[in-house]
Amino acid sequence: MKLKHLIESQQLDIETIFTIFKRADELKNSTVKPLTGKILATLFYEPSTRTRLSFESAMLRLGGYVISTENAKEFSSAIKGESLQDTIRIVSSYADIIVLRHFEEGSSKIAASVSSIPIINGGDGGGQHPTQALLDLYTIWKEIGRVDNIVIAMVGDLKYGRTVRSLCYLLGKFKNVKIIFISPENFSIKDDIKEYLKKHNIKFEEQTNLNKHLPCVDVVYMTRIQEERVSAEEYQNIKIVYKITKENLNLLKENARLLHPLPHVGEIDLPIEIEQTDRRVAYFRQAENGLYIRMALLSYLLE
Amino acid sequence: MKLKHLIESQQLDIETIFTIFKRADELKNSTVKPLTGKILATLFYEPSTRTRLSFESAMLRLGGYVISTENAKEFSSAIKGESLQDTIRIVSSYADIIVLRHFEEGSSKIAASVSSIPIINGGDGGGQHPTQALLDLYTIWKEIGRVDNIVIAMVGDLKYGRTVRSLCYLLGKFKNVKIIFISPENFSIKDDIKEYLKKHNIKFEEQTNLNKHLPCVDVVYMTRIQEERVSAEEYQNIKIVYKITKENLNLLKENARLLHPLPHVGEIDLPIEIEQTDRRVAYFRQAENGLYIRMALLSYLLE
Amino acid sequence: MKLKHLIESQQLDIETIFTIFKRADELKNSTVKPLTGKILATLFYEPSTRTRLSFESAMLRLGGYVISTENAKEFSSAIKGESLQDTIRIVSSYADIIVLRHFEEGSSKIAASVSSIPIINGGDGGGQHPTQALLDLYTIWKEIGRVDNIVIAMVGDLKYGRTVRSLCYLLGKFKNVKIIFISPENFSIKDDIKEYLKKHNIKFEEQTNLNKHLPCVDVVYMTRIQEERVSAEEYQNIKIVYKITKENLNLLKENARLLHPLPHVGEIDLPIEIEQTDRRVAYFRQAENGLYIRMALLSYLLE
Predict the structure, then answer these.
(1) Does an H or E element contain B120, and which?
(2) pLDDT one-digit tens code per residue, C46-90
(3) With DSSP H G I counted as helix, E B as strand and the rest as coil, what are the percentages for chain B, rounded to 5?
(4) In chain C, what percentage of residues exceed pLDDT 70?
(5) How close is the nearest chain A Cα to the Cα of B152, in Å?
(6) Which structural domains are found in chain C, ordered by start?
(7) How far is Cα C70 from Cα C85, in angstroms, rounded to an integer?
(8) Shortest Cα distance, chain C CAs vs residue A134, angstroms
């Protein structure tokens, strides 16, 4: 059944995932304008320039238009006490599709419940960020050549990082995937994800030694420790615990890939020359894939 | 005589009003792009996401382009002491039409006095908001089937609410209109409006009992008490004085309509199911009409 | 050799300058859309509504699209510690050309070093603002009819004002130019510019009496003292030192021109009627020229 909204990764079945992936491949090099005359509203209650610009570029490349607010929390009627439902119902009549970024978990679900047009969750608080998960998975598929039969290390803030959570939900759909979780104390993956993975027969381990596991994985998915989650003192200690440098990058197999949802801070410390020449460094291609995945998703939801 | 700018409701005569209404009807279902290649600048010194997105969507649907600032007060040269006149003269050379939202009454008039291109007042301080008044009147026309011979209750903050003021100016052009003003103490309609109405032979009363008058009106125009106008304590008392609920909504005649310029806060307390199914609840259709009225106005001023 | 990026005025040789000027003349009255389907990203880490809207209008008039952030410092991943290089590499994959405005000198150079697409410096801290210099020079060329053989007075903040610095670099390319620098104490032109001018055989003087020199110049280039550079007390004294009024404007030759990069504050004190009718007042035409120069530059860099 075709999706109306994209709220969380769990909604996506394998068929839909590959429909979107193949659409992304097609649209990447195409000059067709299937969304001519359609309007995307990017409604961002929390600024996220990268995600917003990526969606807007995707819409424009498909021939569509964009209306936008990059700081709806302060600039919109939210400040006068308007409910999100009311805002969505009104913006629904101005646009053909909405990307919602919100600081509260569950906001996209609420928005979808009253919207007459498709809602895409562009990240909601501690909740999900399903287009990031889609582009992460698409990058694995393009770079490794498969999604089944992979070993992936997820490293960093696994507790609060919503990209990790969303990606786990997607990986749960595939076969013979093994996940190695590596995180500082107090940042380990939550039980709900572990239960989901068990239910879907995904093998996983919780480990603490990054370098030991680098030679064994197909993909390393690094994430940033979010400074705002811990005290300044703790942050100084934690941020250097797990790090990819010139040295341990070489522990990776030749065909393995280093992914990161970006922005990265201290957890990746590679010279620009290596980022530009070592094929294993995939995170800028990953960011670019965001454009194609979002083109594919906009086209899929609006067709 | 054709208008060059839209600064205040009083400028609009009946012929122009109906020219715009009929244009709105036509453009609503049309795919013509009469403004291809034209550029709208939305110059907002005070954020108002709804009004801005509505104008921008209108322009894009007509084939035009948009350049925009949603927070000119902080982001533009205003902060360096540039006069509004200078800003307008410069932006005039970048765009074909300007929507100006400003925090100071009279700003649009000043802008129009130096502009080489049409200026639309998108709300200026305690002043006017003429496109809101136009869409309110258009909604009455579409929903009730006429503008002459109606009884309308205006409820809430009648003193500071500029939408009420602008709408009164428009209603003054029609025949056999009766207005019932219902407001908390200290929020009653100002003398200048009363004088205007007298001069134009519009009957009006000032009343205090909302429920008593609900069965007699064709239209209830509810407005929000603006929290920033009163002390926190007063606000708590005042905000519940006049309220539409599931119960008193049913006092309305079957063909009557409930309007609100939105956002609404406590003064409308209806379950979503009733908002979605009770034909008398017209405020989301009213918001949507804003799009068609703004399309019509842009097209009218730029043709 | 064709430029890939525009980072500083010195990069522009006479041939490129006149290629862009002639392109500006052509595009001014043309309806061709040479940039159809191309995307401009305006990445502003420091708000500057005028510069941004001017670039965006230029891009739209050429048939292109725009993605934009007007406050990247607060809204983008910069706040999470992302390097400018990383941001540029990512935005490079979303757009075809970037205009960067940044609060730090040298930012555009850094951006260009990692960008796969053209970077235009839209002003970087105390550094340069080369498109302003180009439009200033274009205005001189259009208004005076030549750039060689002119006498130009530069007045105001010559120390911090980056437009003055960038314009000096351009004037250094021409013949028989004489510059008269007139500034309050502590705001005089820096030694690096003086050395550059000497090296390029440009005559210059440092003077203190504005009125004495007004009758002798072809162009007066006034600039604003930036309030933030001095104490409140000093500012009150300094801002009135050099001023163009109704009276001393008439000291100018009939064919001389008054330019200003705008916004102007107290240093120009002319009634609107004179601004609108006295042909010598050229600064609004100068601002309009910014549009044509930016159209020409976008077209030149993307062709």
Answers:
(1) strand B119-124
(2) 888 899 999 999 999 999 999 999 877 776 666 677 889 999 999
(3) 45, 15, 40
(4) 98
(5) 24
(6) 31-128 (3.40.50.1370), 131-287 (3.40.50.1370)
(7) 19
(8) 18
